Structures are given as structure tokens and as C-alpha cells.
Amino acid sequence: MNTTEYLSKWAISYKDDIINNIMPFWMKYGLDREHGGVYTCVNRDGSLMDTTKSVWFQGRFGFIAAYAYNNIEKNPQWLAASKSCIDFIEAHCFDTDGHMFFEVTEDGKPLRKRRYVFSEGFAAIAMAEYALATGEKEYAKKALDIFKRTLHFLNTPGFLEPKYLSTLPSRGHSITMILINTASRIRMVIDDPSLTEQIDTSIAALRKYFIHPEFKALLEMVGPDGEFIDTCNGRVINPGHCIETAWFIMEEAKYRNWDKDLLQLALQILDWSWEWGWDKEFGGIINFRDCRNLPVQDYSQDMKFWWPQTEAIIATLYAYQATGDEKYLQMHQQVSDWAYAHFPDKEYGEWYGYLHRDGTVAQPAKGNLFKGPFHIPRMMIRGYMLCKELL
């Protein structure tokens, strides 16, 4: 492989895709120019299927639009879209207790609230990235305030409804990993000791509780002290989540001058998770595995979703940057070739989200409350940046 040619090709591809495909699609079909914010429930051709708004995606697209502005090109329409999402969040998405909603109507009336605090994390990174783009420090302070409020919710017994009753005390990987990325994005614009402290706390928790060498796996759910829970849910490996965690840790290792212990941890997670996740028969990263190789309960267990592929693309580029080991560039090529052969819609633009195991399209919509303009554009922006750094 000619590395320079390979990285140059992908750098050009990522930038072109963001500017001429992904952002135009969502600016045209997603951005709500009447009420503010973004719609994501759109069909294959971009036509609106449901006006319900995902609160997650107000923050996610608020972040992406500013992230693209900061790292791809200074497009004022992207910055305005970021501000639209942030304004919608501030006007409509917080309940009176400070906890955010999960779904709202197109004009911002609350529909649903859940026990999660992911909406808060995405709102915070949107405000942090917008502050980076504009220099408006008030948004950096707002991001930090949301972050600290999130920690308060998580650390206040009884505030957030637990996933299980007290008969099954447990802890989850998702919130542990997302706080690493949330804190690191906010730290780009404001210096506060709580940010690095939380990153250290999350990484320590991953080491202590979730990594199970006996399975060569990072588990999604464990007991309060990391105990293995031998149930269908306790045995779940989510390769995409684990690979995403790996690059979050690599990013932190890089921030700390390629800290060797953090890098070793991240590479171990990536290697294990790739082994569990890569489908040797059909290609692509599979949704779920059971750490004892028993049948997986989730009905989508053998499907190929869009986001695990994008996380693997980022993680393998980071791993190559960190190590210079060509095996990671070969992994990048494997997952990229498979993803780009199956997910992009050559007729209407953007990517399908849900494929069967063999790569055929399961359903053609471009978005819903969970899929929208986040993982794909983040991969392209981050991928472009990494390729340029490597070159």
C-alpha cells in the first residue's frame, strides 16, 4: 500500500462528502427554518416522515455544524444551523428540574423524558464547539454548567430512575464512556479541574469494572464492583460501543503526549472488540455478541448498523497514527471498503442506517430519533483531520 496516496485519497473523499453530500442533505431536509432546531425522521429522499424532534439530535447537529465550521470550511450557514439547534435547546428542551427531555414536538412541547443524561452531554458539546467557533465564552460556561449538572444528576441517589430494581444492582458502560468525550470537548474551550477528573474517573472505571480479560472483552453491563452478571444482558458485547471507547481513550492519550498506559488500554480494547465485531463471513462490524458465544437476545444482533462502522474507521486511523503499525491501516481499509460499498445511497445521497447481516438494506430511511447527522459526519470530519495530520 502506498500510504501517502491512500491517506490523500481518503482526506479528499471525507472533505468532499461533508461539503457536497452530508451537510447539504441535512441543511435542506433536516433544518427547521420555522421553529428552529433539526428534524431527523426523514425518508430515503429526505421527505419528512414525523415531525417529532429528538432532543439528542438538537445537541448532536448543533455540535456537528460547528465542528464542520471549525475544521472543514467557515461556512456561515453551518454556524447559523448550530446556533439554531442551541437556541431550540435553551428554549424548549430543559424541564423545570434542569433535566432534559428526550423527545419534543416540532415547536418544542415536551413529549417524553427518560432516565438518561445523554441529551445533556450532546447539548454541552454543541455549546462548547459553538464557543470554539465564535469565541463567545458564555457558551463555554453554559457547557460546563450542563456538564456539572449532569454529574450532580448521576451522583444524586434516586434522581435518575435506575435501569433495574434493587434486586439487580449494576453499572453501565454507555454513560462511563460518553463522559470521556463530553469532558474532552468542553476542555477545548474552558479549563476546569472537574473535566480531567471525570476523564480519569471514567477510564479508571473502565479498567476496574468493565474490562474482563477472561472473555477478552469490554462488557456493557456489570455488577457494582465489576462482577460478571451471567444473564443475556450481562453477557452482551457491543463492539461498536467498545471501539468508540477505544478512540476516545486514544484521543486522551494523544492529549497527554501519547501516554503509554492509556494507549495500551485503548489498543487492547480495539483489538479485542474488532475480533468480536468483524463479521468474517459477510464483512462489517456486527451489532451484538455474547461473551460466552451463546445466542444473543436482541433481535437486531446480527444486523449492520451505520454507526459501528464509522467508529471503527476513526479508531483504526487513530491507532495507526499512534503506532505506525500497518495492520491498523489495513483494518481501516477493510471497514471503509465494506461501509462505502453498502451504506451510501448513490441516488438520494447520505447513508442508509440499517442493513441486514449480508449488507442488503433493511429499511431505507435516512433518519429517525436515533439516526441523523452525527456519527457519519463526525467520522468524515475527524477522518479528514487525522489523514491531514498523518500526511
Automatic annotation (TrEMBL):
Gene3D superfamilies: 1.50.10.10. The keyword Repeat does not apply. The keyword Metal-binding does not apply. One of its GO terms (biological process) is carbohydrate metabolic process. Transmembrane segments: none annotated. InterPro entries: 6-hairpin_glycosidase_sf, 6hp_glycosidase-like_sf, AGE/CE. GO terms for molecular function: isomerase activity. Keywords: Isomerase. Belongs to the N-acylglucosamine 2-epimerase family. PANTHER family: N-ACYLGLUCOSAMINE-2-EPIMERASE. This is N-acylglucosamine 2-epimerase.
